[in-house]
Amino acid sequence: VLGLFLAALLQLGETTHWLFDFFTDNPSTQQALAKILPLIVVAQPVNALVFAADGILQGASQFPFQARAMALSGFTGVATFLALEAGGRDVD
Hints:
Layout: H1 2-15, H2 18-23, H3 27-59, H4 63-87
């Protein structure tokens, strides 16, 4: 529920343009934020689920599983960044 609430607040901030003005008045920074904000809005419910699962796994003392999952996600993230870097495509 918290993730959906935060996603709705972020979407409201984007729609009213209040969120952009709150952090900066620089137009180029606001344009860059506008490109990634939809991804942040979608990620909020997923983020809430991950934190809930993390707490459940820690409560169940599933530390070896958490360590393997963290290593796999770290490897996946690094591999993705390296693949994007090798592609040489600019964000602009």
